[in-house]
Amino acid sequence: MILLPCPYLGVLVELTDERQRHILLKHPDLLPEYIDYVAETLAEPDEVRRDSRFPATRVFARWCESVKGGKFVVVVVVSDPPPMERYWVVTAYIARKLTQGVVEWKRAC
């Protein structure tokens, strides 16, 4: 398991071995080549969205020019309520545009 700092949430976010395997299987264009961008997306997102279907889920996105000629790296984080209070990556992927969720925060230009 990897712990990734997420200043927006003020916590360390878990990226478990099982979730890494999921991402490798479902989104092989992201891992392992762009693993560093997953950490960067959580540390310095361009945008954070709230998933309208799953209120305990946030979608972090960062535009990366060096990923496939310019794409978003998207990291989806689930938060478990207290007393567990756990934050973990459920999936991550590369996208041309952002469509999932409602904007909660956006980096000022």
What features would you describe in this structure?
- The protein is α+β, with helices and mostly antiparallel strands.
- The chain has helices at residues 17-26, 35-43, and strands at residues 2-6, 11-15, 47-50, 57-64, 71-79, 87-95, 102-106.
- The chain has one domain.
- It is 17% helix and 41% strand.
- The strands form two sheets. It has a five-stranded antiparallel β-sheet with strand order 6-5-4-3-7.
- Strand 3 and strand 4 form a beta hairpin.
- The protein starts with a strand and ends with a strand.
In percent terms, what proportion of residues is strand?
35-45%
Q: Which structural class should the secondary elements be placed in?
A: alpha+beta
Roughly what is the average pLDDT, rounded to an integer?
A: 95
Instruction: Specify Rg, calculated over alpha carbons.
Output: 13 Å
**How many domains, as an integer?**
1
Order of helices and strands: EEHHEEEEE
Quick one: overall form?
A: globular
Low-confidence stretches: none
* Spatial strand order of the main sheet: 6-5-4-3-7
Query: What is the count of DSSP helices, taking H or I runs of 4+ residues?
Result: 2
Proportion in helices: 10-25%
Largest sheet: 5 strands, antiparallel
Number of strands: 7
Distance between the termini: 34 Å
